[in-house]
Amino acid sequence: MLNGEMKLARPLRWGMVGGGQTSQVGYKHRIGALRDNGAFELVCGAFDVDAERCTEFGTRIGVQAERCYGDFHRMLAEEAKRPDGVEVVSVATPNFTHYEITKACLEAGLHVICEKPLFFTVAECEEIEQLAASKNLIVGVTYGYSGHQMLMQMKAMIEQGKIGDVRMVDLQYTHGFNAADGDHLSEAQAWRVNPKTSGSTFVLGDLATHTFYMAHRILPNLHIEKLMCDRQSLVPAHAPLEDNAHVLFHYNNGAVGRLWTSSVDAGNMDAQRIRIVGSKASLQWSAAYPDDLHYQVQGEPNQHLHRGMPYLDEQALEYERMGALHTEGLGDSWANVYLSIALAIDAANRGAKDELEAVQYPDVKAGKEGVRWLENCVRSSESGSAWVAYQ
Ligand code: NAI
After folding, report:
1. Residue nearest to atom 31 of ligand 1 (CA)
2. Domain containing 28 — which CATH number?
3. 152 and 254 share a domain?
4. What value of ipTM does the predicted structure carry?
5. Per-residue confidence at 46, pLDDT binned at 50, 70, 90?
6. 292 and 341 share a domain?
7. For ligand 1, atom 1: residue with the closest CA
8. Which one of 74, 93, 196, 337 would you pick to mutate in the ligand 1 pocket, going by the greatest count of ligand atoms within 8 A of its CB?
9. How far apart are the CA of 45 and the centre of ligand 1, in A?
10. Which one in 168, 201, 313, 328 has a CA-CA gap of 20 to 30 Å to 231?
11. Closest residue CA from atom 9 of ligand 1
12. Across-strand partners of 274?
C-alpha cells in the first residue's frame, strides 16, 4: 500500500514539452507525476507552441519564469548549463513531434516519458530503443489506465488458473465525442485526422493502443499471430483516417480476439472495456467502473470483486492508496504509471539491473509494440481488410 513515503532519495527534476494551457492531456501528466511525495518535481517546461502562453501558464502552475521556454531546443540548451538542470522530460505534444523531441532529449542525456502512439514507425521505435539503451536512459510511455490495480488482479487470477485456458479476448475503446463533427474541427481534433500530424491512423492509435497494451499487461504470454482490420471514416470530415475500426486477431495459444474502437459511438459513456473469456470462467473490467471486477464462473452466481479489499492478490494491493470503499480512478492509475517509471529511472541511474528488470512499467518496447499493432492494422485494411500474418 502506498502512503506518500518517499521511494527515491530525492525527487527527479522533471520538465514537460507540450501539455500547456489548452492541452487535453497535460494535467493528467502533472496529476500522475506529482501525486506521490518526492517522485518528481516540476522544474521547467516548453509547455506550448506559443511562447507567451507558455510563460503565462508555466508561472501559474509554479514554474519559475526563467525556466518556461519558448521552444524545446532552447529548454534543452539552457537546462544543460544549470547544475540543477532537468533530468527527465515528458512529451505531451501532437503525435508527429514525439520522435524528434524524444530523440533530442535522449541525445541531451535525459530520460523521457512520451505520449502514445509513441512514433509513426516501428523503425523509429527501434532506433530510439537502441539510443536509449546505449545511454542507459529510460523511455516510458503514458498508457494512463494501464497502472490500475484491478488489471493486475485480472493478471494474477489468470496466472492462478482461475478462468482456465484463455479462449477469447474482447476489447473495446469507443466514445461518441466526434459523432456530430461537421467540417469545422477543433485544433486538437484537426491534427488527429491529418495523416501528417497523426500518423497512419486516428482512433486505432489515439484510443486502441491503450487497450491493446492493457490486454498485454494482463496476458503477457499471448502474442498475436494474424489479424484483420476493417476501418472507415463514418464522418466525412475525418477522412482519410478512420473514426471507427473493428479488428479480429488470433493468438499463439489458439485464443481469438476482437477489438472495436470508435470516436463516433454516439452516446456511449462506458468507453473502455476488457473481457477475458476462459474455459471455466470470465473476467470483465470497465474503465467507467474501474474499482469493480466481475468474475463469472460458468454455472455459479457472478462475483463482484472490489478494489482495495484484502482478498485481492498482492500484485493488486501493491499500488493501493485510498483503501476499499474510497473510490480511486484514472488519476491514481496515472500516478501508478508515473511512480513505476520513476522507480525504473532511479534503478537505471544507480545501475541496479535486477531492480530495473523487476519494475513493471510501459517501456519503449511497449511503445514499439503499440506502433507495430498499428502498422499491421493498416497493412490489413489496405489489403481489402485481408487477414495478414503479424509482423
Ligand atoms: P492538444 O492538441 O490538446 O495539446 C497539445 C499541446 O502541445 C498544446 O499545449 C500545444 O500548445 C503543445 N504543443 C504542440 N506542439 C508543441 C511543440 N512543438 N513544443 C511545445 N509544445 C507544443 O493535444 P492532446 O490531446 O493534449 O494530445 C497530446 C498527445 O497526448 C498526443 O500524442 C495524444 O495522442 C496524447 N494523448 C494521450 C492521452 C492519454 O490518456 N495518454 C489522452 C489524450 C491525448
Report:
1. 94
2. 3.40.50.720
3. yes
4. 0.99
5. very high
6. no
7. 23
8. 93
9. 14
10. 168
11. 20
12. 171, 285
Domain boundaries, position 191: 148-320+370-389
Measured CA to CA in angstroms, residue 343 lies from 108, 298, 358, 360, 365 at distances of 21, 40, 10, 10, 17
Atom of ligand 1 nearest to the CA of 46: 20
Residue 38, pLDDT score: 85
Say what the pLDDT of residue 47 is: 98
Instruction: Judge if 126 and 261 occupy the same domain.
Output: no
Regarding whether 313 and 209 lie in a shared domain, the answer is: yes
- Ligand 1 touching residue 189 (CB < 6 A): no
State in Å: Cα 24 to ligand 1 middle. 7
- CA of 22 from ligand 1 middle (Å) equals 9
Best mutation site among 16, 17, 22, 25 for ligand 1 pocket (most ligand atoms within 8 Å of CB): 25
- Beta carbon of 177 within 6 Å of any ligand 1 atom: no
Q: What is the DSSP secondary structure assignment for residue 115, as one 8-state letter?
A: P
CATH code for position 274:
3.30.360.10
Q: Which residues pair with 18 in a beta bridge?
A: 92
Is residue 5, in this structure, part of any structural domain at all?
no
Domain count, the chain: 2
Taking the C-alpha atoms of residue 56 and residue 61, their distance in angstroms, rounded to an integer, is: 9
User: Residue 17 CA: which ligand 1 atom is closest?
Assistant: 20
Note the helical H segments in the chain: 26-34, 51-60, 72-80, 98-107, 122-134, 149-159, 187-192, 195-198, 203, 209-218, 314-317, 330-349, 353-358, 364-382
pLDDT tens per residue, range 248-300: 999 999 999 999 999 999 999 988 999 999 999 999 999 999 999 999 999 99
Domain presence at residue 23: yes
Contact 319, 331 (CB under 8 A): no
Query: Is residue 1 a part of any domain in this protein?
Result: no
